[in-house]
Amino acid sequence: MKSKHQVGMTLVELMIGITLFAILLTLGAPTFSRWIQSSQIRNSAEAIHNGLMLARAEAVRRNTAVRFQFVTTTTGACAL
Q1: Contact at 8 Å (CB) between 71 and 78?
Q2: Which of 7, 17, 29, 55 is the most buried (most CB within 10 A)?
Q3: The pTM is what?
Q4: Domain map of the chain by residue range?
Q5: How confident is the model at residue 18 (pLDDT cuts 50, 70, 90)?
């Protein structure tokens, strides 16, 4: 007689895997959230730095005072 080999996985094994994945996801969510916030702050700071460096270079090129200001993207008005 030929013996049959098991192919795939049982429902119990699948449920254990899903449970472990859910536990790991729950433990990692707060860290991921902090990483996203940190990344957004870092990107904003880098954008401000790049804008200041561009204003400085433009002031040197024109040999005059240049103003750096924050504006909204939709209207071009100064942000408060």
Answers
A1: yes
A2: 55
A3: 0.59
A4: 32-61
A5: very high
